[in-house]
Design brief:
Layout (H helix, E strand, L loop, with lengths): L2 H22 L13 E8 L9 E5 L3 E3 L5 E5 L2 E7 L2 E3 L2 E8 L3 E3 L4 E11 L3 E4 L2 E2 L3 E3 L4 E4 L2 E4 L4 E4 L4 E4 L7 E4 L4 E5 L6 E5 L13 E5 L40 E9 L4 E3 L2 E2 L3 E4 L6 E10 L4 E4 L5 E9 L4 E4 L5 E8 L20 E4 L28 E8 L13 E6 L4 E4 L2 E3 L4 E5 L2 H8 L3 E4 L2 E3 L20 H6 L5 E2 L10 E3 L13 E4 L17 H7 L30
Parallel strand pairs: 1-9, 10-13, 11-14, 12-15, 13-16, 14-17, 15-18, 16-19, 17-20, 18-21, 19-21, 20-24, 21-25, 24-26, 25-27, 26-28, 27-29, 28-30, 29-31, 30-32, 31-33, 31-34, 32-35, 33-36, 34-37, 37-38
Antiparallel strand pairs: 1-4, 2-3, 2-5, 5-8, 6-7, 7-9, 22-23, 39-40
Length: 582
């Protein structure tokens, strides 16, 4: 081998050794090459603008995202699962259909999953028989009340805001009874009230399409024996033929639950002749119960009726009634403030549901009447309750009560703003009685007059306008008839102001429309009009009369105005009340 050959061989060997040495020490400190990310696109459609989707995306290494709308993600290669839940908005449901899941994402590539929401019908649930355990009703379900439905003692029926319950029009008289010892907790809101109404569609509804809401408490009443709720023993599907007893209670502070932002519409079925259910029936309901922002619309019988008990209320609205707007009797001792009653017509009931009353009034307040009105020592039976402090002694403050306009036929002996009779007491403060075609107020009998003369029936600071068009402009009982002459109220310092003949009911308020088929709840503005006489003249302090102060406590607030609304104040009826003729 030549020297040159030996050198070449040595050099090649040396190069090989160096190469091997270099390979032996070449571990890359950055590790293996990571595959490039890909893209996952989730497309969401079908929901109303502004409504969030309920989507989840999961994948390798605990990857998780919750997009509320269409979204794009940079993700590691792998398999990803897209899931979606039902969405409820404005009381309707949207179901989701998904395509492209699971989605396999590769480096530098895009995979797409699509979530398509579609409107689906809310389920319908029929309520019947008894509710024996706690139950909650929600706005994403349609509820049909079939026959008499009873919430049994010990159970609480919770009704969430926005829930709608309809009375089954194929089971005439369907009604909800919250029995003694049970509770209803119906907490609506201004934007989403709880609504009880007819099963029929708007434009086809009638008073008497269903029964109504009946609450029975454990408060005291002034009738003895086993007296049943009027109409509770009728031949209605599921009815207890013995009726529902409400007398015999002992706890005036009893709590039957809460009604807040609740409407009852097109109710009031007559289960038997002269035995009608009301829109709202409060039978011996105690003062532990909360009632505020509630409305009755187009009821066949009374829109609100209290039998005994001491439940208080604020912000009560009654539009169109087949009988009385507010009816209290049998030792009712509750306090109520801010009340609106309006009658523009006399309603036509559903055929077969009963007849409208022959004497519909604004207020109809009785002491005691019927079986079990036991005469106390030395008194008439209408004065039942005297010996045990159970005179009918309701308080109604800041009420606006408007009767029918000229030209509307008034049934029988109806059309009086306030009828006080049968031994009643009670306080009537800072109210407005206007457009009642027969009279503003009537004090019907000697037993009620006895309460009036001893100051357990007190009327203070009312305003009358446009009353008595059927009785030569009468605002009070005519001389020689009954006991409510103007001079009698003046003698008791009632401070009732009678507006001049040129003052109309409509002129008192910001907006009192001529009601028609296009009138809605938004058509009314019960605030005093500019320079309205009811913007002033209220009893703005109770300190001067300790009887009133003691009776109303802190629940009733004195006001410098008369009627249900403060000048320039909150329009508390707006947004949640309804008006419709059918």
């Amino acid at each position: 081998m030549t020297t040159l050959s030996r050198f070449r061989t040595f050099a090649a060997a040396s190069f090989s050794l160096l190469a091997l040495a270099a390979c032996a020490g070449s571990d890359d400190p950055a590790g293996p090459v990571t595959p490039a990310n890909g893209t996952l696109t989730v497309t969401v459609s079908g929901l109303p603008t502004g409504v969030n989707a309920a989507v989840t995306v999961t994948g390798p290494s605990s990857y998780s995202q919750s997009p509320t709308a269409s979204a794009t993600y940079s993700v590691a290669p792998g398999t990803y699962t897209v899931a979606a839940a039902q969405v409820t908005t404005n009381n309707v449901r949207y179901n989701a259909a998904i395509t492209g899941s699971p989605a396999t994402v590769t480096s530098n590539a895009t995979a797409t999953a699509t979530v398509t929401y579609t409107l689906t019908a809310n389920p319908t649930v029929t309520l019947s028989g008894s509710i024996a355990a706690n139950r909650t009703l929600t706005p994403d379900t349609n509820y049909v009340l079939r026959g008499f439905v009873y919430v049994n003692s010990g159970a609480t029926l919770t009704i969430n805001a926005g829930t709608k319950i309809v009375g089954d029009t194929t089971a005439l008289g369907s009604a909800l009874f919250v029995l003694r010892g049970a509770r209803i907790v119906a907490n609506g809101t201004e934007a989403a009230p709880v609504v009880f109404t007819s099963q029929r569609t708007a434009g086809n509804r009638s008073p008497g399409d269903w029964g109504g809401l009946v609450i029975v408490g454990n408060g005291r009443a002034n009738r003895t024996g086993n007296v049943i709720v009027e109409g509770s023993n009728g031949s209605v599907v599921g009815a207890n033929q013995a009726g529902t007893i409400y007398t015999g209670g002992t706890v005036d502070t009893d709590n039957s639950g809460t009604l807040r932002y609740v409407r009852v519409e097109f109710a009031g079925y007559a289960t038997l002749t002269d035995a009608e259910l009301n829109s709202f029936t409060f039978a011996a309901v105690g003062s532990g119960t909360t009632v505020e922002y509630v409305q009755a619309l187009a009821g066949l019988d009374d829109n609100f009726e209290w039998f005994g008990g001491s439940v208080n209320g604020k912000y009560l609205v009654s539009y169109e009634s087949g009988d009385d707007h507010f009816d209290g009797s049998e030792g009712y001792r509750g306090l109520n403030q801010f009340m609106i009653g309006m009658q523009s017509t006399f309603i036509t009931p559903r055929p077969g549901a009963g007849a409208v009353s022959t004497d519909p009034q604004g207020f109809e307040i009785d002491g005691c009447n019927g079986g079990g009105c036991v005469a106390p020592s030395g008194a008439n039976a209408q004065s039942a309750g005297r010996d045990d402090g159970l005179y009918n002694m309701n308080v109604f403050a800041n009420f606006t009560m408007i009767g029918t306009p000229t030209g509307v036929t008034v049934p029988g002996s109806g059309g009086v703003g306030a009828v006080l009779r049968r031994g009643t007491g009670g306080y009537y403060l800072n109210g407005v009685l206007a457009r009642w075609p027969r009279a503003g107020i009537s004090l019907r009998d000697s037993t009620s007059n006895n309460r009036f003369l001893v100051d357990s029936l007190i009327v203070r600071n009312l305003y009358f306008a446009e009353n008595g068009v059927l009785a030569s402009g009468a605002n009070f009982d005519a001389a020689g008839s009954n006991f409510g002459q103007e001079s009698a109220f003046a003698a008791r310092n009632s401070n009732i102001v009678v507006g001049a003949g040129t003052v109309t009911a409509a002129s008192l308020f910001t907006t009192l429309p001529t009601v028609s088929g296009t009138t809605t709840g938004a058509s009314f503005d019960w605030s005093p009009a500019a320079s309205s006489p009811i913007a002033t003249g209220g009893l703005n302090s109770f300190a001067a009369d300790p009887r009133i102060a003691a009776r109303v406590g802190t629940f009733i607030t004195p006001t410098a105005y008369r009627g249900a609304a403060a000048p320039g104040g909150a329009k508390w009826w707006a947004g949640w009340t309804n008006y419709a003729r059918n």
